[in-house]
Design goal:
alpha+beta, binds copper (II) ion, 334 residues, 8 helices, Immunoglobulin-like, three-stranded mixed beta sheet, 10 strands
């Protein structure tokens, strides 16, 4: 009941406001004023408000940019990442220049060209030269942006260093498994039909392929050596996932049924990055950036960039998958 009364009160208030406006209008017309028709004074104040609005907008934007400083990602920690940051910076510069000029003009012109007494509209139907400029200049700018972007894409996914350390990243709902290629640096064959979670064969390793006998399957932290090209071969079990390394500015989709590749060379160890960021809890991340299901948000794993010696020591502590499963029987039987 009270709710209904509130609605009625609101409706009455709206009607009241309209009636008051009507009374104001009628009384103004009696006094000889043209209500609802902008005069020079209105045009001046509206134009000025446009100008004030755009300056406030720029001020707010600059304040936002100032406010997020230090909250962004730390410096790029890979060779690809440095190029990626350059590409982004290049794009931002172009976007900012165009944004500030066009937005300013959008609001400045209504102020400058506001209607005043005795002004006449300028008839300006067509200008070939102007059209040529606004077609050719953006075309060239876009071509440069695309070519520059493609050069980065080539760096991420082009022919990898033949000596690159091979690591398979196998994504599933909702984690990543890493498989290291072992001493031969060759990843053994896999088949999704051989996946056996109970036996720990989460990537479907095929025991008939000798190249896989020394492969190491790890869960949890993914270790990689610094200043060494790493080739990630990525797979997905059931739906599309993403392999995204924000600190290395590198990513690729994991697609069921095919293998995608991405590579980079990490240039800053985890320990060095802890000093750079002055954060003793800093860690690099591997995250999924394709919404792959309700547990998507949990798909994040640490990446540890070791010095070559630390990496060797860590690797020596790992055991090949088959060695773990058969206590060396399989390797001995060949
Ligand atoms: Cu995912």
């Amino acid at each position: 009941m009270i709710k209904l009364l509130v609605y009625v009160a609101i409706a009455l208030a709206i009607i009241l406001i309209f009636q008051l406006m009507r009374i104001y209008q009628l009384s103004a017309e009696v006094k000889g004023k043209h209500v609802g028709k902008a005069d020079d004074k209105d045009n001046r104040s509206q134009g000025l408000m446009m100008l004030i609005f755009v300056l406030a907008l720029f001020g707010a934007l600059i304040w936002c940019l100032y406010d997020v400083r230090g909250k962004l990602l730390p410096p790029a920690a890979s060779d690809v990442g440095v190029t990626s940051d350059n590409v982004f910076f290049f794009n931002w510069v172009i976007i900012f220049i165009v944004f500030f000029i066009t937005t300013f003009m959008l609001f400045y012109f209504p102020y400058k060209y506001k209607k005043q007494k005795d002004t006449k509209a300028f008839f300006f139907p067509h200008n070939d030269k102007l059209e040529l400029i606004w077609t050719v200049v953006p075309s060239i700018a876009l071509a440069v942006i695309i070519i520059y972007g493609l050069s980065l894409w080539g760096k991420m996914t082009g022919t990898p260093d033949p000596k690159a350390v091979k690591i398979q990243i196998y994504a599933k709902q909702y984690d990543f498994t890493a498989r290291y290629a072992g001493t031969d640096n060759e990843l053994g064959k896999t088949d999704y039909r051989l996946i056996d979670d109970g036996a720990g064969n989460v990537v479907g390793m095929d025991s008939t392929d000798k190249a896989g006998w020394d492969d190491i399957i790890t869960k949890g932290d993914i270790h990689i050596p610094v200043n060494t090209p790493i080739l990630f071969e990525c797979n997905a079990r059931e739906v599309m996932h993403g392999v995204f390394f924000p600190h290395f500015r590198d990513q690729i989709n994991c697609v069921p049924g095919i293998t995608t590749e991405v590579h980079f060379t990490a240039t800053i160890t985890t320990d060095s990055m802890k000093m750079i960021t002055k954060d003793s809890n800093f860690y690099y991340l591997l995250i999924c950036n394709r919404v792959c299901g309700p547990g998507h948000y949990t798909m994040a794993q640490h990446v540890v960039v070791d010095s070559p010696d630390e990496y060797k020591a860590w690797l020596a502590k790992q055991h090949p998958y088959y060695e773990r499963k058969t206590q060396g029987k399989l390797t001995a039987s060949k």
